[in-house]
Design goal:
Chain lengths: ~180, ~350
């Protein structure tokens, strides 16, 4: 059985009489300005921001899990999970493989660097809801448009953050991870 | 008809004579010039100086000479007063009576005009002063012009004038439509009644030839189209050759007769042959007879040098169409699911 394609047709519903917006039949949504959301996140504490981001990821992972099974390919996951992130208006999602390390990329986030923490929590919540894995996502690096998020375990994430704090580039971090990992 | 016409003309001539004789009496002059030459045609008209006396004579009014326009020369009229009225002797002339149908309607002389207008003076020309006769006192010579060529062309059309002689009357009486004098201009209303003349310059309506039309109608009834309507008729020749008949009988062939070979059946060329070649071993279909002909072709062979001097050339045999390139896709490694990749990354 092939993997179904992501079909965003009529995913977003605007009810002008009621003044409501719904996404794929879920709860009502609110269209907010990106800078207003960024300002709100700046004012919130770390746990609130983390919890907010994971709630967004959990909802996206639920819709992906409805369409994909456990053996879905990377392309299928990127297509469907990336479709959900795009419907939120948070950018274009991709996946990179650096050896054994799995890196998720997001391009064109309207929140820019201020939204990287939101994206890391979103990916953690989506993977946990879609595949039942507790992951830790670490921001490896970013440029003007693209941000790389490393998906590792919680212990590995602490080491990576240490290396990054020391000024190690994300390439060296990935090399160290692949070099230290038992083959 | 001619007698009546002659009588009319004679009556007209009499009127003319009376009119001429009456003018000198009014003007007071004594010598009419043109009347002397008129021949006497009848006894009644023989009295040359017999003015009509049907009515009592009115006092003679001196001619009123209007002041001429500046561009017209004044007529040479003397200022001598008219003489005393001359009582004319009564003459037994027939009174004037209107003639119906007359083209020339003369003015009755019994009613002289009280005043002379320019139209009346147009017909009166003044003779140029010639040699005085016998040393007499210079008197104006007023005469009635009998020759229209000597008159000055008036501004308007001329008044109708009576003929001077009988010949002229007879000439005028001839019904020659083309000889009628047609005024060049439209006559002014004060010029009196004019005879309606046929318009010139316009083509007269053509009258149909009634005789020809009647001749056509009187012909025999048409029994069909005429030769002119049909045109030239060409008779076709009789058909040549044998007569063709349609054979509607159906011939039933016996079942033993083999069916003829289908002409559209063609043996496909063998794949070993190149494109454009054919298999010479194929036999022609039985329906085609191939005559065996001997072909003699004259070929001029050039002189060839000895084989030791020219290189021996070997041509590469033609290679048939075949798939030269072969593409082999690389064997893809076993596709791992996203979950396996995730677990591998989590194992770091």
């Amino acid at each position: 059985m092939g993997t179904p394609r992501f079909d965003p047709t009529h995913s977003l519903e605007f009810n002008l009489d009621r003044g409501s917006v719904k996404l794929s039949g879920s709860l009502e949504r609110v269209l907010l300005p990106a800078d207003a959301l960024a300002a709100l996140l700046r004012g919130a504490d770390v746990e609130t921001r983390r919890d907010f981001a994971r709630r967004l990821g959990t909802e996206a992972g639920r819709r992906v899990a409805e369409r994909l099974d456990a053996g879905a390919s990377s392309e299928a996951v990127v297509e469907h999970l990336g479709g959900e992130v795009a419907l939120m208006g948070l950018g274009s999602l991709g996946v990179e493989r650096w050896g054994r390390a799995l890196v998720v990329t997001v391009t064109g986030s309207p929140l820019r660097a201020e939204g990287d923490e939101l994206l890391t929590g979103l990916v953690e919540g989506a993977l946990q809801r879609a595949f039942g894995r507790n992951t830790a996502v670490v921001t490896l690096g970013r440029d003007d448009a693209l941000v790389r998020l490393l998906v590792v375990s919680s212990d590995t994430a602490e080491r990576v953050r240490g290396w990054l704090a020391e000024g190690t580039s994300f390439g060296d971090v990935l090399a160290r991870l692949n070099g230290s990992a038992p083959s | 008809m001619n007698q009546e016409r002659i009588q009319k003309l004679e009556a007209l001539l009499d009127r003319i004579r009376r009119n001429r004789s009456a003018r000198p009496s009014r003007s007071g002059t004594a010598e009419p010039i043109a009347l002397e030459a008129l021949p006497a045609t009848s006894g009644a008209a023989a009295a040359p100086h017999a003015p009509p006396m049907a009515k009592p004579a009115t006092p003679v009014v001196p001619p009123v000479v209007p002041k001429p326009p500046p561009h017209v020369e004044a007529p040479a009229v003397s200022a001598t007063p008219p003489g005393p009225p001359v009582s004319a002797p009564p003459v037994a002339t027939p009174s004037w009576r209107p003639e119906p149908g007359s083209a020339v309607q003369a003015r009755p002389t019994t009613v002289p005009p009280m005043e002379l207008s320019e139209d009346d003076l147009i017909d009166v020309t003044t003779m140029p002063p010639g040699p005085e006769p016998d040393g007499a006192e210079a008197e104006p010579l007023v005469a009635i012009s009998a020759e229209p060529e000597e008159e000055q062309p008036p501004a308007s059309s001329r008044r109708s004038r009576g003929p001077a002689t009988l010949d002229e009357v007879m000439a005028n009486a001839s019904p020659a439509e083309s000889e009628r004098e047609i005024p060049a201009q439209t006559p002014p209303p004060e010029s009196g009644p004019q005879e309606a003349l046929p318009a010139t310059g316009l083509e007269a309506p053509r009258l149909p030839h009634v005789e020809d039309l009647e001749a056509d109608l009187s012909g025999p009834p048409s029994m069909g189209p005429t030769a002119e309507q049909l045109g030239e008729t060409i008779e076709l020749e009789a058909p040549r050759g044998p007569e063709l008949e349609i054979d509607i009988t159906v011939s039933e062939e016996g079942p033993d007769v083999p069916a003829p070979a289908e002409e559209l059946e063609v043996t496909l060329p063998r794949p070993s042959l190149q494109s454009g070649l054919y298999d010479v071993s194929l036999a022609a279909p039985p329906s085609i007879e191939v005559p065996e002909r001997e072909v003699h072709v004259a070929v001029t062979v050039p002189a060839v040098a000895s084989s030791s001097e020219s290189p021996e050339r070997l041509a590469r045999p033609a290679v048939g169409a075949t798939d030269v390139a072969e593409v082999r896709f690389g064997t893809r490694t076993a596709e791992k699911s996203f979950l396996e990749l995730l677990d591998a990354s989590l194992g770091l």
